[in-house]
Write the structure tokens for this entry.
Amino acid sequence: MEHATALPEFLVQRYRAWAGNDYLAKADKHRKLAREGQHPSALVISCCDSRVQPTDIFAADPGDFFVHRNIANLVPKPTTEGGPHGTSAAIEYAVTALDVSHILVVGHSSCGGVRGCHDMCQGTAPALERPDSFVGRWIDALRPAFETVKDIDDETARVAALEKAAVVMSLNNLMAFDFVADRVADGRISLHGLWTDIADGRLEQYDPKTGQFSRV
Ligand SMILES: [Zn+2]
């Protein structure tokens, strides 16, 4: 593979700083994890967005969370058709092999993926409509949720509502996996819908009784 090159210097420097400080401070923990394997308590599904760090929000250490990130923190409906399914694979492994006790779906403010789906549904994002747009075909999964927010007049409020609707849709789709539904039914797993504001660090959680998100 002649296209791979050496790490740029700034990343080498960052790695060496980590290895000499953060890693050393937690070296015993790393060795224990390597020896005994991982036993994370939670599966976290969050966006790829570089501004969202779910492990920071909960001050997580290595081994605490099994994290799956994708554009717009979506859980599509389960299907075995249409090729590999990375999100479903992560969910299956976390639930059936790692036996996690909690699944957290973490949405966020200013989500570009959610915005893209919003614009596509409004007919103003032709590039995302193209059959060869990987992003567009991925966020198609969120289209049904747009129906729940489309009547909100203010655009900013409508997009923000879609960010939260994405979380609720993902929770609903999680329950369509039998191995999740069975464990929710007998109390082995709890599901949590969250949304975080990048600017002020606010974390809100979904309350199924009211259908609203409220501050943690
Ligand atoms: Zn996002």
Observations:
- The mean pLDDT is 97.
- The longest strand covers residues 102-108.
- The longest helix spans residues 155-174.
- Residues 1-36 form one domain.
